[in-house]
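2024-03-11 09:14:02 INFO receiving multi-entity request
2024-03-11 09:14:02 INFO entity count = two
2024-03-11 09:14:03 INFO echoing inputs for audit
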Amino acid sequence: MPEPNAWLLDLGHSMRAAIGSRELVQIVENPVLHAVPLTPDHARHVLIWQKHLVPVISLSMRVAALAADHSLVALVAYQEVGHHVPKLGAAFLASPPRRIEVSDAQATAQDDCLADWKGLAISCFEREGELVPVLHLNRLFRGNR
Amino acid sequence: MRNAVLLKIGGMRLVLAQADVRSLESVMDIDPADCPQGSVGWAPYAGQRWPAYCLGEGLLLLEPIPAARRVCALLALPQGYLGVLCDEARTLVDFQEASFEIPACMYVAQSPISGLRMVEEGLACVSDAGRLSAYLQQTSVVHNAEVL
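2024-03-11 09:21:47 INFO inference complete, emitting structure
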């Protein structure tokens, strides 16, 4: 039987996205969030996790200008090009993530799906009649700096 | 390590080097007559008067002055001083530089915040007089254009 190899994230507002199974570090319920002034609408908060400062992103705000619920976040790890130590980021979730199995057969070359996610998706796949983007975490947390 | 001053502005905490904060004055002394755009009045100091700005916890210009803003911190600049209103100010002894950079995805070029640091009360934004002065000048121009 195939092993689950991805996490399906519920971002609220009927928005879903996936990340690799090894990219999810922890789910944090009712996180202690710190607002940082003069930051983009989708990246207003940080949390402190094991002495690390972690930016928390609202993907629904980033992609569709829709506010996210702040009661659950997914802590994720990603690798920056040229860096060996993984970096941490977080994203607001509307409900706990689900482990899923994604196969190559589900991959789809839907340009519309990628375009909707404004360059934040590395690919898309089809699941239960829905197109699900796979998040490009490095691009998401790299910002415009 | 050096001493620093923590300014409490609503729910936001702003940390500046102690050398940047020349004096703490009462908001009662601010004269609102004919003040520069974006400011809330003139703060008297060293025989002259200097523009004083009131910021909200989002670091946006705020008018009228909330009752909680009781202190005007006079920041030292090469060309004089500027006032920033706050609720409270206290000294942080042997304060260390910002321990966290602003994460790349949160970076905004015009922001006066140079870093973040945990203090007793929670997360604080670190800045300096030069960055705040540049930010307030730029923000005042935008603020004035919006009012007009």
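2024-03-11 09:21:48 INFO post-check: Residues 18 and 69 of chain A are 18 Å apart (CA to CA).
2024-03-11 09:21:48 INFO post-check: DSSP finds three helices and twelve strands in chain A.
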